[in-house]
Design a protein that fits this description.
The complex is a heterodimer of chains A (255) and B (446). With 255 residues, chain A is α/β, with parallel strands linked by helices. Chain A has a domain at 88-169: P-loop containing nucleotide triphosphate hydrolases (Rossmann fold). Chain A has 10 helices and 10 strands. Chain A has helices at residues 42-49, 72-78, 95-101, 111-116, 121-138, 154-167, 184-201, 212-218, 236-240, 243-249; strands spanning 4-13, 16-26, 31-35, 57-62, 65-66, 80-83, 172-176, 204-208, 221-226, 229-234. With 446 residues, chain B is an all-alpha fold. Helix content of chain B is 68%, strand content 1%. Chain B has 18 helices and 2 strands. In chain B, strands 1-2 form a two-stranded antiparallel sheet. In chain B, helix 9 (206-232) runs antiparallel to helix 14 (320-346). The chains are: A alpha/beta (255), B mainly alpha (446). The structure holds adenosine-5'-triphosphate and magnesium ion.
Chain lengths: 255, 446
């Protein structure tokens, strides 16, 4: 059974058809790629999958459950998490708090616990604190835990965002251009890193990326989007040699 | 301190010595020092003020006299030194010596208290100091009680304007609802009134019913706040500012037109259940404690995540609608409670006491102290209140001076005095046992 299945997904922004008849099946443990020129609709597919927009048409089934139209916080709880094309951290908070808040969906004390310090609030907070710090240590950023996140170097912020995404305990992780703004050396490191977190956390990964070396080196299967439609899909080799893909990318820089 | 004594080469040297002598003083010693100052004031304050030509006992350390008669400044300085500074420093020093000797022989009983016991003990101590200070005049008592009310209002507003990052101006409107609800309940229950009939319960129950009336007042306020919250949290933007402004005006003109509540003339006759400082002190501590608990919990911190990036918060499993509701309704609840307290402190309310000016005053306290800070809200309220009392002799000019001060603070510190940070309150956090031992060593001389 696929972990994620999307059937006939179509989405309109007013008169603009951003996604048209998109289909996919992602198996557990897979690393899947979604590529395409700027404005092709890639991020929109991610936004639809995570419930940011309600699709005009189509169905999204995650882990055997229809999640079409559910709000993001419920989809997040079911096991989908993501990072963003442009960092979306909570800038005024410390790196540690950024990670801790992602435990929200699993906090066991309720409002009464929060207000009155009862219902095992203090044990639960200690547990969250410990787990968040462990997670940060796994990503090698524990040293930044108590610093305000907006002041951290870009690369560290990327890792904090990753730690935050992992703190919700996802089964499926969506990465929207994880190497944006990185040097080639940093990109190589990120490739290792993606494999590392996939194995450590038993993840299925779906990623959007423009850097072909990154996509080709990591993904088992790649889908190519242009004007909201899939124009090709296959293994990295197949996609790379597909004339349709080359035509779609003509004029845009393929790196 | 006596060793290596030589003639001081200047004030700076004295200051350094003073700092060295007091840098490791435990908070309990400071509290005793403050108590000593308050007691000295009670003993000789009146006479000394008379001798120095300050008139009656000055209400705020003589500071407001400066604006009445600047020629008195030397006398005021003498008064402050003799009545406050010398007794406080002296007693603190003695107690510190004593404590150092005790801790050399083992832990003092204070160190053996559990941390909640330690906090309660220190709070009780603070209360005793305030109590003695307030007992010097009804005016001080009134100012202190209103200060408590304002702390609750400011902190609760901070939840929305600070942690949640929206802009609410309805704090006076919430106060009004709470004030009227609590007043009606208490008058109906405990006062023979020609609108609400004879008292339902014996008057001796009033102090015990008052907390219940306040909680009901807060709850009713929160329910009316739903009318604001439900439409405005569907989208972000400036909605909340506009809707809360509308709420405030609607509340005000409603009360002006409800005749059996006195209309524009107001409503009076509240039973005297908030006469003592203790009642207000307990409610203030309770409110601060509960809101502090919330904003330091991960559940509560999610409020700031919603402010900094709402879509990301929603994706990271935060129920953003619920989080915003909770923050806003908590703000409304505590503003309602504060309104109920206010009504019973002043014993008379009318709709015009809950207008835009009241909201603006609380906003001033909030932005002076700083967003996202519990201690900032307390500090802002205390400073604003003190400033407002000290500058009272300036009359109308006061309302030009205070805004100028606020503007200067906002230029120097755009996030307010303590925006996005907390100061550690030592009397709420026990020092490490080691630090107490170090006190027993002589302070490093210069
Ligand atoms: N919220 C929105 N409202 C209206 N139009 C939108 C919205 N979001 C995206 N679009 C439009 O939909 C199309 C697809 O955008 P999308 O962000 O999905 O592209 P993308 O493939 O992620 O591109 P890039 O590589 O630049 O990130 C674009 O034309 C974009 O302008
Ligand atoms: Mg995109």
């Amino acid at each position: 059974m696929p972990l994620l299945e999307i059937k006939n997904l179509t989405h309109f922004f007013g008169g603009l058809r951003a996604v048209h008849n998109f289909n996919t099946r992602i198996e557990p443990g897979e690393i899947r790629g979604l590529i395409g020129p700027n404005g092709a609709g890639k991020t929109t597919v991610f936004n639809l999958t995570t419930g940011v927009y309600k699709p005009t048409e189509g169905q999204i089934i995650f882990d055997g459950q229809d999640i079409t139209g559910k709000p993001p916080h419920q989809i997040g709880k079911l096991g989908i998490s993501r990072t963003y094309q442009n960092l979306r951290l909570w800038g005024n908070l410390t790196a540690l708090d950024n990670v801790k808040i992602a435990f929200y969906g699993r906090i066991r004390y309720g409002l009464l616990g929060a207000f009155f310090g009862i219902n095992g609030r203090y044990e639960e907070e200690r547990r969250i604190d410990r787990e968040a710090r462990e997670l940060m240590a796994l990503l090698g950023i524990e040293g930044y835990a108590d610093m305000v996140v907006s002041g951290l170097p870009y690369g560290i912020q990327r890792k904090v965002e990753m730690a935050r995404a992992l703190a919700t305990r996802p089964k499926l992780l969506l990465l929207d251009e994880p190497t944006a703004g990185m040097t080639p050396a940093e990109m190589e490191e990120t490739m290792e890193f993606v494999l590392y977190i996939r194995d450590t956390f038993n993840l299925t990964i779906w990623l959007i990326e423009h850097k072909m070396r990154f996509v080709m080196g990591l993904c088992h299967w790649i889908q190519v989007l242009n004007f909201g439609e899939i124009i090709a899909e296959g293994t990295p080799q197949e996609v790379q040699n597909n004339p349709e893909v080359i035509r779609a990318y003509l004029g845009t820089a393929v790196t | 301190m006596q060793r290596s004594f030589e003639l001081p080469s200047g004030l700076r040297r004295w200051y350094a010595r003073l700092r060295a002598a007091y840098q490791d003083v435990p908070i309990s010693a400071w509290l005793v020092g403050m108590l000593a100052a308050v007691l000295v004031e009670a003993l000789i304050g009146r006479d000394l003020a008379y001798i120095l030509g300050l008139g009656n006992l000055p209400s705020f350390f003589g500071l407001s006299l400066i604006f009445k008669k600047w020629q008195l400044i030397p006398n005021i300085l003498v008064f402050i030194a003799v009545v406050y500074v010398i007794p406080a420093l002296g007693a603190t020093y003695l107690v510190r010596k004593l404590m150092a000797r005790l801790s050399g022989r083992g832990l003092t009983w204070l160190d053996r208290l559990p941390s909640w016991g330690y906090i309660l003990f220190n709070l009780a101590f603070v209360y005793v100091i305030l109590h003695f200070w307030a007992s010097a005049s009804d005016y001080r008592l009134l100012v202190l009680r209103l200060l408590g009310v304002n702390i609750i209002l400011t902190l609760s507003l901070n939840l929305v304007n600070g942690w949640m990052g929206e802009f609410s101006v309805s704090v006076a409107g919430f106060m009004a609802v709470g004030a009227y609800v609590a007043s009606v309940l208490m008058v109906w229950g405990f006062v023979d009134d020609n609108v609400f009939g004879p008292a339902v319960f014996p008057a001796s129950w009033a102090p015990f019913a008052f907390p219940i009336a306040l909680i009901i007042a807060g709850a009713v306020t929160a329910v009316t706040a739903l009318a604001v919250a439900i439409p405005s949290f569907r989208t972000r933007g400036d909605y909340l500012a506009i809707i809360t402004l509308a709420y405030m005006f609607i509340v005000k003109s409603s009360f002006e037109n409800i005749d059996f509540l006195g209309g524009a003339r107001g409503f009076m006759g509240q039973p005297k259940v908030a006469e003592s400082l203790l009642v207000v002190f307990v409610w203030t501590v309770l409110a601060v404690w509960i809101m502090y608990n919330y904003v330091t919990s991960t559940l509560g911190k999610a409020t700031s995540a919603v402010r900094d990036n709402e879509p990301a918060a929603e994706m990271m499993t935060v129920n953003t609608r619920k989080v915003k509701m909770v923050a806003f309704l908590t703000h409304a609840f505590w503003s309602g409670v504060a309104g109920g307290l206010y009504a019973h402190i002043v014993g008379y309310i009318n709709p015009s006491s809950f207008g835009l000016v009241k909201s603006a005053e609380i906003l001033g306290m909030l932005y002076l102290g700083g967003l996202n800070s519990v201690t900032g809200s307390i500090l802002g309220t205390v400073l604003f209140t003190m400033l407002s009392e000290i500058l009272r002799p300036l009359k109308l000019i006061k309302w030009m001076v205070i805004p100028v001060i606020l503007i200067i603070v906002m230029i120097k510190r755009p996030r307010g005095l303590l925006g996005f940070q907390e100061i550690r309150l030592p009397f709420l956090e026990r020092r490490a046992a080691k630090a107490d031992e170090e006190v027993s060593h002589a302070p490093a001389g210069d």
